[in-house]
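FIELD: query
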Amino acid sequence: MLEPRNNNELPPIPGKRYFTIGEVAELCDCKPHVLRYWEQEFPQLKPVKRRGNRRYYQRQDVIVIRQIRSLLYEQGFTIGGARNHLSGDEARSDTTQSQQIVRQLRIELEEVLRILRR
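FIELD: result
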């Protein structure tokens, strides 16, 4: 987990509406306690909480978590720097998120194409 890895190597995000913290931890290659910590540090990260205080993340949350992971582990930002980066320039943040969505869709479409060619 401590080795910086490229977000392109992360598994594709399934087409589900909600994800448990365990699923998100696998999708983002980080541990659940790290996700809970990031919730406290990044106001953009607000998973839905249901009975028993269980967290359910939506697709947009997973994309934000991958962006946070990239800022911290790959680009060398501190927590404060990543927080400022995410909240400081919303237009740039939206562009980055859009690029991640496009990249994710491309991976999923390539997988569908691979399946169809079999």
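FIELD: remark
Strands lie at 19-20, 48-50, 54-57.
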